[in-house]
Amino acid sequence: MPESLATVVIAELEELLGSQSVLHAPVDRIAYSYDGTFAQHLPDVVVLPQTNEEVASVVRVAARHDVPILPRGMGSGLAGGTLPIRGGIVLSLTRMKRILEIDEENMTATAEAGIVTADLQAEVEKRGLFYPPDPSSIKQSTIGGNVACNAGGPRCLKYGVTGDYVMGMTVILADGRLLKTGGKAIKNVTGLNINQLFVGSEGTLGIITEVILRLISKPPHVRTALVQFPALETAGEAVHAVLKQGLVPATMELLDETAIECIEEAMHLGLPLDVEAILLIETDGPHEDVVIREIDAIAAICLETGASRVDVARSEEERADLWRARRSVSPALARRAPNKLGEDITVPRSAIPEAIRRIKAISARYGLPVVVFGHAGDGNLHPNVLFDRRDPEQLAKVEPMVGDIFQMALDLGGTLSGEHGIGTFKLPYVHAALGSVSVDIQRRIKQALDPQNILNPGKVLPEG
Amino acid sequence: MTIELGFMCAGDTNDRLETDGARSREGTCVSEGHLAAEDARQCVRCGLCLATCPSYRESLVETDSPRARVALVQALEEGRIDAPLDGFANAFYRCLLCGACTFTCPSGVAVDRVLELTRGDLADEGLLPPALSDLDDRISRYRNISAEPNEGRLIWADNLPSPPTGLGKKQAEVAYFVGCVGSFFPRSYKVPQSFVQIIDRAGVDYALLGGAEWCCGYPMFINGELESARDLMGHNVEAVRALGASKVVTTCPSCFYFWKQSYPAALGTGDLGIEVQHATEFLADLLEAGAVPLREVRKDVTYHDPCDLGRKGGVTEAPRRIIAQIPGVRLLEMAENRESSYCCGGGGNLETYAPELVKAVSRSRIQQVVDTGAGTVVSACQQCERTLASAARAERVRVRVQDITELVLEAMGRRGRCLSRWRLS
Fold first, then answer.
1. Would the pLDDT of A343 be above 50?
2. What 3-state DSSP class applies to A103?
3. Where are the beta strands (DSSP E) in A66-175?
C-alpha cells in the first residue's frame, strides 16, 4: 500500500493493539514475507492480536481503508496461501493459542486457532482422547491453519481429514462481525452447512479464531511395518490389493528411492537403499490381537504383490523413528537440490501405479528429478520437482513440468490438491479442475462474504 | 502466470526494502555474507525449527525464529535489502545459541554457522549491541567476564574445610579449568568447591590455574569477535601445557564446548595434544571405578541437559551415569531431554542483552521440571543452575536446584560449612 496509507493504518493498529503487537520494521516484514515455499512478498504490517475483539478491530481497519488482510499461523503452508502478494496486513494468530475446553464426556476440544496442532494432540491424549489428523507439519502448524487448508496427513486414510473433525468454529467476517458456526451437537442440519464452507477456505472468506473439534478414543494398540519394494509400481499395486481385501490400515505411506536416500542421509536410520520404494503401513485399534492379525495379513498381501521384505517396528522408539523420518522427507530433499516445488495431486486409488509411471515419464522428458512420496492409501501423492532456481534453464522447466503433472492428475480423474490447498501456486489450473460453473458459484460466495475483496485476495479462486 | 510469483525476488518493488540512512552494501554488514548465504541457501522454509527454538516459542514472533534469521541473510545476499536495517543485528543477538535449530533441521542447514558468520560480520561493522561490546571490553581488560582482578579466581577455595590439593601446584596430570562464572559468581562457588572435594577424595593429581586461567574466549566468539578471543585461547593452552597436563577438565559446559570444538581449529594446531573433558565425563569414570564411596540418597531428581554440554557437546550419558551410581536416587526425565533438551534461557549472552526473553524461557523450563514431580533439578552447568534457580524463585515453585557435583558430595556424606545449598520455596 502507499506509504502515506501505511502510516495511517499502522497508527490506527497501534492505537488498538498497542505497539508491542504491531510490527512493521523492515526485518519483521521480511520475517512475515514467506511461507513453507521459496516464494516471498512483503506485508506492510504484521499484527499479533490476542482476542476475538482485537481480530475484529483489525479487520475493521482493513475494511475502512480497503487494504488486504491475511490470517497466518506458523507459515508452513506449501501453496503460497499466506503470501501477502498485494501487501497489506498479515494477521498472525500465533498468540491466540489457548485450549478453551476439553469436554471429556462429549469428546470435543475447543481451542483458539493459533495452538500448535501437536500441542493440542498431546493435551487431549493426556486424557485418553485422540485427535487423528496428522499433517507432516504437525509441530510447526496451527489448528487454525489446518482447518483453513483442510489439512490431511498419513492417518487420514482411516480417520479422515481435518474437516471431518470440525464441529464448529468462531469466524471473524470481513465486516468485523463474529460468526459462530456448528456446535457440539453431533447431528445438525439446521440451515446450510456453513461450517464446512469455511473449512479449506484459506482465509478468503473469514478469519477462523476458534474451533470446536470432535475427538475419538485413543486406539491403545498400534503396529507399524516398513515394507520394501524392488519396483515402485508394485508398491502402488500392493496398496490397491490390501484395500481391496477390506483391510483399512491407519496409514499407507509411500516413499520412493530418492526420498529414502534423502531421509537416510539426514537421519541414519538404516533404511534400505537398494529398493525403489517403501510403504510405511500402520494398523491400530482397541484390540491388540486384531491389530496384529491385520498387520500380518497386510504383510502377506504385500509379499504376494511383489514386496521383498517386511519389518515390523519392535518398539515404540523404532516406530517413532520411522514417523520422524516420514515427516522429515519434504525438507530433507534440500540435501539434493537447493529448491523444490512440492505438489499435492490426488488421483483415484486404482490410478496410483499409472500416475507414478506418468510422473516418472514427465521427469525424464524435462530432465529434472521428481521425487514421489505421499499418502498412497488415499491416492494423494506429493511429486516434488527438485531444481536450483539460480539456474535459469532449470527454473524455466519447473512451471511447465508442474503443469503437466496437474494435467496428468486431471486426466486420470484426480484433482490439484489433496491437502495443501490452492494458495497462489495452483491458481492457473483451477478453471481446468473445477469448470466454469463451479468457479462462478464460488466467486459469488466469495463476493457475498467479502464484497471488498480484502480477505487474502488473489488466492484460491482466479479473479475474473 | 500466477506461479511466477513464486520466483519473484530481487527487482520487484514490493520485495525491495531500503531504509533512511541505509549504508551502501559494499563494505557493510555481511560483506562476507556469501559464506553465511551458502549455508542459508539450503533452507526450504519448512518451519520445523520454530517448534524447537526457545526464542520463537516464547515470543511467538517469526522474527525471533531461526527461519527468519536465515531469510534475512538470504535477503541481504540477494540484494533485496541494502544494508543493516533497524533490528537486523537484534534478530541475530536475540538468540540463545542453544543449537536446537541446527540439530533439528532436516534440510541440514548449519544455522549455527549462519549465526556465527553473520555475528562476525556485524561485529566487524561495529554493529555489536553496546551491552555486548561492553562485555567484550571487560574481558579484554580483565581476562574475565566479571571485571574483577583476575588473581581473585580462587577466592572460592578460601572457605573450604581444607585447601584443595590442586592449589599452587606447578605440575599435574590434570588441569582443572574452573571458568569465569564458577570463579567469580558467589552463588556458583559451590560448583568448584564440590568438584575439588570429590577429586581430592579420589586422589586425583590436578592443578588449579588461578590467575593464569583467562576467560576461555567463548563469550567473545559468540559475540562475533573471534579475533579478540584468540589471544585468550592461546594463553590458556600455554598455561595448561606449562603444567605438563595431558588433560583439561572443566565444570563449565561452555568452556568445555569451546575448548573442544573451537580451540584446535582457531589456534591452527589441529590437535591440541591435550584431552578435553567435561567434569561429568571425568566423574562418571571415577565413580564407576569405585574411586569414591557413595551412600544412599533417597530422592527423586530430574536432570537438565545444558545445551553446550548435551546437544552441542555430545555429552548426555555421563551425567546420567553419575546419577545411576548414587544409590536411592531416582531419575525422572523431562519431556524434552538429552539432545532435545529445552534451553534454560541462560545461553548466548542473552542475560546481558534480552533479560525478559531469558525469564520467559527459564519459566517454561522450570515448568517442565515441575511436571516431572521431582523435587530437585540437577544440572552440570553453573549458568543453567543460576538461571533455573532464579526462575524457581520467581515462579515460587518448590524445586531445589543442584549441581551434579553437589549431588555427588551429598552422597559422600559431606556437607562442608561453605556449601550452602539453595533451598527454594
1. yes
2. strand
3. 69-72, 89-92, 99-103, 108-112, 129-130, 166-172
Lookup: cell for A32? 512475515
Q: How far is B397 from chain A (nearest CA, A)?
A: 22
**Could you read off the pLDDT of B57-116 as tens digits, one per residue?**
999 999 999 999 999 999 888 887 765 676 888 999 999 999 999 999 988 899 999 998
Amino acid found at A301? I
Q: In the predicted model, what is the mean pLDDT of residues A360-369?
A: 96
Q: Tell me the domains of chain A and their CATH numbers.
A: 3-92 (3.30.43.10), 99-217 (3.30.465.10), 219-331 (3.30.70.2190), 337-434 (3.30.70.2740)
Q: Residue B98: inside a domain, yes or no?
A: yes
At B417 the pLDDT is 39
Tell the residue number behind the cell numbers 460466495, with chain if given.
A445
Cα radius of gyration rounded to whole Å, chain B = 22
| B45 contact residues in A (CB cutoff 8 A) | 34-38, 75
Report yes or no on B416 lying in a domain: no
Domain presence at residue B424: no
Helix (H, G, I), strand (E, B) or coil at A178: strand
> In this predicted structure, what is the pLDDT of residue A21?
98
Nearest CA distance, B107 vs chain A (angstrom): 5
Most B CBs within 10 Å, among A3, A22, A35, A40, to test the B interface: A40
**Which residue range is the domain that position B101 belongs to?**
2-127
Residue B17: the pLDDT is 52
Residues in CB range of A15: below 8 A, 6 or more apart: none
B245 and B337 part of one domain: no
Q: Which residues of B15-28 are buried (b: 16+ CB within 10 A; e: fewer)?
A: bbbebeebeebeeb
Q: Which residue has the cell 531504509?
A: B19
